[in-house]
Design goal:
Elements: H1 4-16, E1 22-28, E2 35-39, H2 52-64, E3 72-74, E4 103-105, H3 106-115, H4 119-129, H5 131-140, H6 171-182, H7 189-200, H8 208-211, E5 217-225, E6 228-237, E7 240-248, H9 252-272
Antiparallel strand pairs: 1-2, 1-7, 3-4, 5-6, 6-7
């Protein structure tokens, strides 16, 4: 359902902030039928690591279909590429780095893919889950314009003969997935809660999380490219529960303050309305 108040708010916000290189999607979760609004949120812009939300959903769907989360998967050289190391930024990571030849469980690979945005774990899961299987599942869940098409790389290319084009998850689709998680409707109530808990452990907290007041809880997934900085989150606090997705087509030094400004404005709106 479209939200009249949210529509007016976003229109006003677009006059206060330069959103010419941004996509914003909002879902108000406080009513039985969530209201939503968006600013260019159906446009196809780089999702970056936010696409990993689709693989997270695919992992829980596989588990619901009988694939044990304890399944052991080997880390292979063909999936090796650069990836973010939180400890280089002074952020404590409870999980060790992946190494070629090691065996990790489906559960732990999914965890590090989300919490530290591990690209090697992502590529390993793309092979294990199957990009078509993941795409078909999330499209069936309502993410009509989401496609998992290629593995992720940073600094070094990966062997990806099944690459069929760019990954795609518009901001509106990311918001749809998170709204399903928040409502307990993605795979199952138990799976949705587990996914929420995983997102709440996100280690990259400088965007939406960094702009929220102390009474708000963040659970989300960030993304970063040389010319994109994104965040997609469920926000819960006294009197408010909403999904906020902000994609920027800007490098981090410009994208970060814009996402934070949008976050502060959106959270103030929900605290007052």
């Amino acid at each position: 359902m479209n939200g009249g108040g949210l529509d007016a708010f976003l229109k006003e916000l677009s006059g206060q902030l330069d959103l010419s290189k941004a996509c914003v999607s909002i879902v108000d979760l406080r009513s039985a039928e969530p209201q939503r609004s968006g600013w260019r949120d159906t446009e196809i812009k780089p999702a970056a690591s936010v696409i990993k939300l689709a693989l997270m959903a695919g992992a829980w769907q596989a588990a619901a279909s009988g694939v044990p989360f304890s399944s052991e998967i080997q880390i292979k050289q063909n999936n090796w590429t650069g990836t973010w190391d939180p400890q280089h930024d002074g952020i404590k990571d409870p999980n060790p780095p992946l190494k070629v030849g090691e065996t990790w469980t489906l559960e732990k690979l999914t965890e590090v893919m989300i919490r530290r945005s591990d690209n090697v774990a992502t590529n390993t899961l793309i092979d294990f889950l199957g990009r078509k299987n993941v795409t078909d599942f999330v499209q069936g869940a309502g993410l009509a314009n989401t496609h998992v098409r290629h593995k992720l790389s940073s600094g070094s290319d990966v062997d990806d003969p099944e690459n069929t084009g760019y990954n795609q998850m518009p901001a509106r689709d990311a918001a749809t997935l998170l709204a399903l998680v928040a409502r307990g409707r993605l795979v199952s109530p138990e799976a949705s809660q587990a996914m929420y808990d995983l997102l709440a452990g996100q280690l990259d907290r400088e965007l939406i999380a960094g702009a929220l007041p102390g009474d708000a809880a963040y659970a989300g997934k960030t993304g970063k490219l040389s010319s994109a900085r994104n965040d997609a989150a469920i926000v819960r606090g006294p009197g408010r529960e909403y999904v906020l997705v902000v994609y920027t087509q800007l490098p981090a030094p410009q994208g970060r303050p814009l996402i934070q400004s949008v976050t502060r404005a959106v959270d103030e709106y929900f605290r007052k309305n």
